[in-house]
Amino acid sequence: MQRLTNRQIILGITGGIAAYKSAELTRLLKGAGADVRVVMTPAATEFITPLTLQALSGHAVHQHLLDPEAEAGMGHIELAKWADLILIAPASADFIARLAGGQGDDLLSTLCLATDAPICLAPAMNQAMWRNRHTQDNIAQLRAGNIGIFGPGSGAQACGDTGPGRMLEPVELAQLTAEQFDTGALAGKTVFITAGPTREALDPVRYISNHSSGKMGYALAQAAVDAGARVKLISGPVNLAAPARMDVVQVQSANDMLAAAMDGIASCDIFIAAAAVADYRPTAVSEHKIKKGSEEVMELHLVKNPDIVASVAALPGKPFTVGFAAETRDLLNYARSKLERKQLDLIVANDVSQPGIGFNSDENAVTLVSRDEARPLPQTSKRQLASQLIRQIAELYNRAQ
Ligand code: C5P
């Protein structure tokens, strides 16, 4: 079920007595880490209330195609694009017929027409309706169109009949849904990533900082999410949009970043420190703006900031800890001594003296340095490099377990 972490699933509910089981199904999908948005047909709301599904999914239930309020939030095309998978459970005989006919006469059928995501159905109906030639033709046509058909099961039916047409149990449906996705290299793992610069205040209007863009840390966070991890991105001030599917904590100073890193650290499996943390901060922050005086030279008194990655690496039961080393010379030696000094499991070393890579650029080239080896990863876009890094980190993490 770890395959469901971060997956965005539309659960379509159509009219049938089995709709009461969709509440449990929502709970199971959510519990396995999926983000679930429920779409109900008008008939479905006769069997179970949208309020129940709203409470369980944590989102307002989508019901109408032409609802200006809902369209202003997440319109139907946006919703169709949002989905990684559409699961319709229960799928009534009528809905199956409309889907096979390519109709778009309500929100759910329109979403099915508009999406590129896989669609799966859990049929639920009376045994005679299931065996009916039209239903069987529709199912055969949908199967041929690569639509997944989960079940139905066979047994006692709500109407008193016995036979095929029962919706599969929610546990079985959640399992079959999970099997539609690949297992990511970090499925079910929790990863904390620091990114961007920190700002160390001098007074209410001035600060000490650096040119870090945060691009590498953000790309790593995205790659970790794509690999199935639960991600907390702890970000200093950057000009990048907050990415989806992860918990983003915005911070300013190194002390704030340390507090955010330590919050919930016991649940963290892998800690990646990609932030360019200011080494020092002003000894005191002036309450008011510092005025220009007559003196030609001004002295600033600075005090050392906590080392965030070293603090994490010093914890008992520490996560697999990965640091970065940006150097202008003697890259591997400095990286190795940093690995030792900070007690890290891995260092991503990059030579920032080379033009076109590192700070503020879109490309990077690095060497992965662990206790036993140094693996170079050649120059490529930060996005490409991030997925290669996450793959390597996952491999080394698994080896260390
Ligand atoms: O010691 P140096 O700053 O070169 O080490 C860089 C590595 O240590 C990076 O991974 C950086 O995110 C981390 N670091 C930190 N807290 C600091 C300084 C650096 O986490 N105060």
CATH superfamily assignment of the largest domain? CoaB-like
If strands are numbered along the chain, what order do they take across the biggest sheet? 12-11-8-13-16-17-18-19
Count of helical regions = 14
Q: Low-confidence spans: pLDDT under 50, at least 5 residues?
A: none
Ligand kinds: cytidine-5'-monophosphate
Question: What share of residues are in beta strands?
Answer: 15-25%
Distance between the amino and carboxyl termini: 21 Å
Radius of gyration (CA) equals 27 Å
Classified by CATH, the class of the largest domain is Alpha Beta
Number of self-contained structural domains: 2
CATH architecture term of the largest domain: 3-Layer(aba) Sandwich
> What is the mean predicted local confidence, pLDDT?
93
**CATH fold descriptor of the largest domain:** Rossmann fold
| Number of E strands | 19
Explain what the structure shows.
It is a single chain. The chain is α/β, with parallel strands linked by helices. It folds into two domains: 2-178, Flavin prenyltransferase-like (Rossmann fold); 190-400, CoaB-like (Rossmann fold). Helices cover 33% and strands 23% of the residues. The chain contains 14 helices and 19 strands. Strands 12-11-8-13-16-17-18-19 form an eight-stranded mixed β-sheet, sandwiched between helices. Strands 2-1-3-4-5 form a five-stranded parallel β-sheet, sandwiched between helices. Strands 6-7 form a two-stranded antiparallel sheet. A hairpin with a 5-residue loop joins strand 9 (200-201) and strand 10 (207-208). Helix 1 crosses helix 9. The longest helix has 19 residues, at 382-400. The chain is elongated, with a radius of gyration of 27 Å. The model has no long low-confidence stretch (mean pLDDT 93). The chain binds cytidine-5'-monophosphate. Cytidine-5'-monophosphate is lined by residues 194, 254, 273, 275, 277, 305, 307-309, 323-325, 338. Residues 194, 254, 273, 275, 277, 305, 307-309, 323-325, 338 line the site of cytidine-5'-monophosphate.
